[in-house]
Design brief:
197 residues; alpha/beta; Rossmann fold; Arc Repressor Mutant, subunit A; six-stranded parallel beta sheet; 9 helices
Amino acid sequence: MIRVGILAPALALRVGLREVLRGLEGVEVVADASAPAELPPLEVLVLTSSDFLPGLGGEPPAVLLLTDDLGAAARLMDLPVWGVLPLDASPEELSAAVRALGEGLWAGSPVLLQDLFERPPASLFEDADPLVDPLTAREREVLQLAAEGLANKQIALSLEISEHTVKFHLSSLYAKLGVTSRTEAIRAGARRGWVVL
């Protein structure tokens, strides 16, 4: 069972979402609230406003934002697992998104995601930290291949370089991006528009 919570300012919206989600197989709605502090631990949180995001703090659960606002959707990209659907999403779309998020995958409406990833990074992430030392073309290639799920050995074969060189490029990436893992590097690259996921 995927434990789901609903966070929405309006009672009518919470009740409506609860009824739709309650009818989904493998989903247990454990709470609905108008403030993040009122929620118990859960695996997926369904939001109707990105204004709740700062209040989540710590290690938030997977977040599914229901919105038609691209700017609101862009605020999700700092979270480890997130999804975005329009407010008029069907029960089938909600079910698929909740299941994907419950498995740790990203999910969303193709239209919203396409618009989100096609917009220039500067317009979405005006507060993104500028890099003192920009990435080299080779580092971007390594980052993209890592984002595609290739292991170091596969990246080395693809780029016709040694595995040691791949490790060197990854270390350099981590330092330039201020991260400590491959996942964080990929996330930082995606936020800046350098990686296509």
